[in-house]
């Protein structure tokens, strides 16, 4: 596994090399206990970002709960997305200035939370009009991520395969299953188990999935998507345009007490998203 410890700054020089080789890096301990406590509180607030949640079916009678928005805003979740430590790493990995595409909470409820089938994020984003795959996701472990509660799985190095064709599976996009089957014979499957406060940074063409939550504990991840600054969408899309990120000091995360004023955020109406199918109410 391509992993680094944020507390060991001497080891961080190699992250770009490993990211380019594997398609992802894991950053251990990037958020401290005070920061994770603040983040957990924000997502647990029923008047915060989770009041905009919706469910998509993932097969077998299971669902995944999502809340998705553009524009970081000035609440706790916005401080995370604008923090120097997150944005600076992403700028290093993408090779220059970037913009905040969207962010989302991904909740798998205990025992019944669903899966994400094999896909590439760019499989979604290509259909939303982005011309280049010069994009990435940072997935932050708000809860511990384990095999039992449906942690991320990746095919190491699969970002080098280019974009695969995607189609619907239940409410999600799924990459060509025949191609996935063949790639599993060639590429190493890795389970990205994370402790609270860890994060995984991965390329938009990295093939990944996550299993059902069969445990008694929820799995909440905070996923932030960034795009290279020059990568405006070709098609009309409410989120997919360059808007400079106003970085904040890392200390702003623990210092921020705003969980409910969501001014500036634009929440996605999933009925307007061509890449998902929402569970009927």
Describe the structure.
With 281 residues, the protein is an alpha+beta fold. It contains seven helices and 15 strands. It has helices at residues 15-22, 33-44, 76-82, 84-94, 121-125, 177-186, 251-255; strands spanning 3-5, 24-28, 54-59, 62-70, 98-108, 116-119, 135-141, 152-155, 166-169, 172-175, 189-192, 199-203, 208-210, 219-228, 266-267. The strands form three sheets. Strands 1, 2, 3, 4, 5, 7, 12, 14 and 15 form a nine-stranded mixed β-sheet that branches. Strands 6-13-8-11 form a four-stranded antiparallel β-sheet. A two-stranded antiparallel sheet has the order 9-10. Strand 3 (54-59) and strand 4 form a beta hairpin. The radius of gyration is 17 Å and the shape is globular. The chain starts with a strand and ends in a 14-residue tail after the last strand.
Task: Provide a quick synopsis of the model.
By secondary structure, this protein is of the alpha+beta class. The protein is 21% helix and 29% strand.
Quote the distance from N terminus to C terminus.
40 Å
Taking pLDDT < 50 over at least 5 consecutive residues as the criterion, the unreliable ranges are none
Structural class: alpha+beta
Question: Radius of gyration, rounded?
Answer: 17 Å
Give the overall form.
globular
The H-and-E topology, N to C, reads as EHEHEEHHEEHEEEEHEEEEHE
Overall average pLDDT: 93
Counted by DSSP, the helix tally is 7
Strands, count: 15
Strand count, sense and barrel status of the largest sheet are: 9 strands, mixed
Estimate the strand proportion.
25-35%
Helix content: 10-25%
């Amino acid at each position: 596994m391509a992993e680094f410890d944020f507390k060991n700054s001497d080891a961080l020089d190699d992250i770009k090399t490993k990211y380019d080789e594997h398609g992802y890096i894991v950053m251990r301990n990037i958020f401290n206990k005070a920061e994770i406590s603040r983040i957990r509180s924000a997502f647990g607030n029923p008047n915060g970002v989770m009041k905009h949640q919706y469910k998509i079916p993932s097969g077998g009678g299971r669902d995944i709960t999502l809340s998705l928005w553009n524009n970081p805003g000035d609440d706790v979740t916005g401080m995370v997305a604008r923090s120097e430590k997150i944005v600076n790493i992403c700028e290093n990995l993408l090779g220059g200035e970037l913009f905040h595409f969207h962010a989302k909470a991904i909740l798998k409820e205990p025992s019944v939370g669903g899966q994400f089938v094999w896909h590439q994020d760019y499989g979604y984003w290509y259909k939303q009009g982005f011309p280049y795959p010069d994009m990435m996701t940072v997935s932050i472990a708000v809860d511990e991520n384990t095999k039992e509660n449906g942690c991320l799985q990746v095919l190491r190095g699969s970002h080098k395969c280019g974009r695969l064709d995607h189609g619907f599976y239940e409410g999600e996009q799924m990459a060509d299953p025949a191609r996935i089957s063949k790639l599993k014979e060639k590429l190493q499957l890795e389970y990205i188990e994370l402790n609270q406060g860890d994060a995984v940074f991965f390329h938009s063409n990295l093939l990944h999935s996550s299993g059902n939550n069969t445990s008694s504990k929820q799995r909440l991840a905070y996923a932030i998507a960034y795009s290279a600054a020059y990568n405006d969408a070709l098609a009309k899309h409410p989120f997919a345009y360059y808007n400079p990120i106003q970085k904040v000091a890392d200390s702003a995360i623990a210092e921020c007490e705003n969980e409910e004023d969501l001014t500036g955020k634009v929440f996605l109406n999933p009925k307007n998203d061509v890449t998902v199918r929402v569970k009927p109410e």
